[in-house]
Automatic annotation (TrEMBL):
Residues 660-769 are annotated as: Disordered. Belongs to the HHIP family. The lineage of its organism: Eukaryota, Metazoa, Chordata, Craniata, Vertebrata. PANTHER family: HEDGEHOG-INTERACTING PROTEIN, HHIP-LIKE PROTEIN 2. It is found in: Secreted. Residues 676-685 have a biased composition (Low complexity). This is HHIP-like 2. Residues 700-714 have a biased composition (Basic and acidic residues). Residues 58-214 form the Folate receptor-like domain. It holds the Pfam family Folate_rec. Gene3D superfamilies: TolB, C-terminal domain. Residues 226-549 form the Glucose/Sorbosone dehydrogenase domain. The keyword Secreted applies.
Length: 769
């Protein structure tokens, strides 16, 4: 692990306060207090705005074109299924109100119903608080509501079944519009569409005034004793294996539970102590690329020989033949042991590259300044410390080693170098990762990123290349450390892609390039942190220049993270980062970095500004046969001394299960105001066609509709019958505004005009005149 911290204390994360006025403001009276409140809420209006859907999740970019609520096809809360559902409800209502009311109210009703697709739907429907009822109607600005009421008050009964709203609608327009208005006029419709502050950076990662990326977290596991790593087994089981420094590995299942029996317990063999910041212990774990078939995995840990000699050991083990969730304790086969001259700088990373070889990252031997030998261990290619080693574990060598040397290792055959050495000049690389590559283009795939802990001045991030010299002890970061070695013309070192000084942080924890599915805005960001001060950071690559730009990561404020199950704080000491089998990003942290301290927690990153479209990130996992007991997950975060009863940002982990909008039951008979001349035939009996108005547009529309219906019969294999629309009405996916703008109906022959097939109702024959 990293160096021992200078000063340590228990770290208690603080939950957000319930009120914003403190005792310091209580002396303010009258206009002074009013002025401060106005200024404060003017500030909040910009800082607390965040998009949210009615399902209490961030909006998304629909994967396909929306035919009805087109205004939100680039970014919003509806996919094609939801869009078609709204369209069918809309046309059910239009069937009931008649042609005259349709001509007046059709566009207004469509605009109102489509607010379910708005990226600010949760604000419009007052759904941000999961403990209050969701509105049936979106928040309408008073002037817009007045216009709607004056023209279409008779339609309200089809949009809501709220008795209060229905009674008020009939009696008092002003009262009705006050009821459905919003206190914040920035969010009422249609003002929300005109607010540049809300739409200028919509869909991008939220940044605070200093440019810090605001992310949120979910608590995944807790009660861990200095968790040093989490890895997946790559066997499609989507299990997560979390290792504790004392020598335990625990299995976490897809449902969040932990198996009661550990996967591995070698605590009796592992060298570690209760000292704060002791870097020795169980440090590395990697599963073979073909683990699903061969059950092999590899471990890296500290040992003590005869009570005196300290070493690091790299071993191979196998899973039990009888239980896929337990390792065979008798299967250990030692591959390599390296003597450690000091207690610190033990390295500890194991990983498999895309080439199928095992990479081993060792520290420089410890103490300070790499004082071993003339040039130190790191610059000495005949030493295994301070190196990146690469071996082939699929066989053994002729000289008796339980592994082979890859034939393209850079120093193979050189007399003054160990054949295992792949790269050198590293100090104490703490946490490395392999880039999965861009999900679409594959860009960056196979790159190995590492965080190398510095000495006195700089921490750095490196990309490992074959034969590379990363400078230590000649250099620290971009600067010289040993002036004599630094000025040697033969150094030929590779500079880090990023380094930061000790005024920022004092012990880097390397991370991952995000390539997951759930948070598309994070794709390509290398996210890492600092162990000592708990700071999260990110690097963004300029692909043209090859340079990397720093982006700070901070926890979103209370409003930004107001989603069920999310938190906006974490423990201070960031031990490691992790990636699950689906590519989602995590990190492990503790409030007290001792190997025996049970305060370790596993967190998962979440971008509150944008998610993937519904259904995109679903995956099938292989069944996991569990023989023992499972321990269900219970969140602990935010249960601290100052707020012992507060949980999470919303004080709840559960997503509300009630439906955001109640389904309106349409009457079996049309309203009495319906004009008989405008009556529409039933869908069950043959309909008599009403002659269309003799306009070019109407004739064109009728012709296009017939052509479309013929094509749809070939495409749609369903036996259900789509409800027909008279030619003097618009298609399901077009309203008056669309036609006026284009002069002709819009159409997509690949989609059914009426959306999904409709189920016939028992009394459908009596439903329409």
């Amino acid at each position: 692990m990293q160096r021992e911290p200078d000063s340590l204390s228990h770290h208690h994360a603080k939950c957000p306060e319930d009120r914003f006025l403190t005792k310091r403001t209580e002396w303010l009276q009258g206009p002074f207090r009013l002025l401060i409140i106005i200024i404060y809420f003017s500030y909040l209006r910009h800082t607390l705005a965040h998009p949210q859907c009615l399902d209490y999740q961030p909006p998304f970019k629909p994967p396909y074109h929306l035919e009805f609520c087109r205004h939100y096809e680039k970014f919003g809360c509806c996919d094609q299924k939801a869009d078609n559902s709204i369209a069918m409800r809309y046309w059910d209502i239009m069937d009931l109100i008649g042609d005259e009311a349709y001509a007046v109210c059709g566009d207004l009703v469509k605009d109102i119903m489509c607010q379910e697709c708005s990226p600010y739907a949760a604000h419009l429907f007052d759904a941000e608080d999961p403990y209050t009822p969701v509105r049936h109607l979106p928040g309408l600005c008073f002037a817009y509501c007045s216009e709607f009421h004056s023209k279409c008050h008779s339609v309200v009964k089809y949009l809501t079944n709220s008795r209060t709203l229905l009674e008020t609608c009939e009696k008092d327009r002003s009262h009705f519009c006050n009821l459905i208005n919003l206190a914040d006029q920035d969010y009422c419709y249609p003002n929300v569409l005109r607010n540049n502050n809300l739409y200028s950076n919509l869909g991008k990662v939220v940044e605070d005034t200093k440019g810090c990326l605001q992310l949120c977290l979910t608590e995944v596991a807790n009660g861990l004793r200095n968790p040093v790593l989490m890895v997946h087994s790559g066997d499609d089981s989507h299990r997560m294996f979390v290792a504790e420094q004392i020598g335990f590995i625990w299995v976490y299942l897809k449902d969040g539970s932990r198996l009661e029996q550990p996967f591995l317990d070698i605590s009796g063999e592992v060298l570690t102590t209760q000292w704060l910041g002791d870097e020795r212990g169980f440090l590395g774990l990697a599963f073979h690329p073909k683990y699903r078939n061969n059950g092999r995995f590899f471990i890296y840990y500290s040992i003590l020989i005869n009570g005196k000699l300290e070493k690091i050991r790299i071993s191979e083990m196998k899973v039990s033949a009888h239980d896929m969730n337990v390792a065979d304790p008798h299967s250990e086969r030692v591959l390599l042991e390296i003597e450690e001259p000091a207690a610190n700088h033990n390295g500890g990373q194991l990983l498999f590259g895309l080439d199928g070889y095992l990479y081993i990252f060792t520290g420089d031997g410890g103490k300070a300044g790499d004082p071993f030998g003339k040039f130190g261990n790191s610059q000495n290619r005949s030493a295994l410390l301070g190196k990146v080693l690469r071996i082939d574990v699929n066989g053994s060598s002729t000289d008796g080693k339980p592994y082979k040397i890859p034939p393209d290792n850079p120093f193979l055959g050189e007399p003054d170098a160990k054949p295992e050495v792949y790269a050198y000049g590293v100090r104490n690389m703490w946490r490395c990762s392999v880039d999965r590559g861009d999900p679409l283009t594959g860009y960056g795939r196979g790159r190995i990123f590492c965080g190398d802990v510095g000495q006195n001045r700089y921490e750095e991030v490196d990309i490992i290349v074959k034969g590379g010299n990363y400078g230590w002890r000649a250099k620290e970061g971009f600067e010289c450390f040993d002036m004599k070695l630094c000025q040697n013309s033969s150094l030929d070192d590779i500079l880090p892609i990023f380094a930061y000084g000790h005024h920022v942080g004092k012990s880097i924890t390397g991370g991952y390039v995000y390539r997951g599915c759930e948070s598309p805005n994070l794709n390509g960001l290398y996210i890492f942190g600092d162990f000592m001060n708990g700071r999260l950071m990110a690097l963004e690559e300029d692909k043209k220049s090859g340079s990397w730009k720093e982006k700070n990561v901070c926890m979103g404020d209370t409003k930004t993270c107001s989603f069920p199950g999310l938190i906006n704080h974490h423990h201070k000491f960031i031990i490691s980062f992790a990636e699950d089998e689906a590519g989602e990003l995590y990190f492990l942290a503790t409030s007290y970095p001792s190997a025996m301290s049970p305060f370790g927690t596993l967190y998962k990153f979440m971008d509150p500004s944008r998610r993937a479209p519904p259904g995109k990130c679903k995956y099938k996992s292989l069944p996991v046969k569990v023989r023992g007991k499972k321990v269900p997950f219970t969140p602990r975060e935010c249960k601290n001394i100052s707020h012992p009863k507060k949980l999470l940002v919303l004080s709840t982990l559960e997503t509300p299960t009630r439906s955001p909008l109640e389904k309106i039951v349409l009457p079996t008979k049309p309203p009495g105001t319906r004009q008989p001349t405008s009556a529409k035939p039933t869908t069950s009996a043959p309909k008599k066609k009403i002659p269309p108005k003799t306009t070019t547009a109407k004739l064109s529309q009728e012709k296009l509709k017939k052509t479309t219906q013929a094509k749809e019969k070939q495409i749609n294999t369903s036996t259900k019958t789509l409800k027909k629309v008279p030619p003097n009405k618009k298609s399901l996916l077009q309203t008056k505004k669309d036609k006026q703008a284009t002069g002709k109906p819009s159409h997509n022959p690949k989609l059914p005009i009426k959306g999904a097939p409709e189920k016939r109702k028992p009394n459908q024959q009596n439903q329409k005149m």
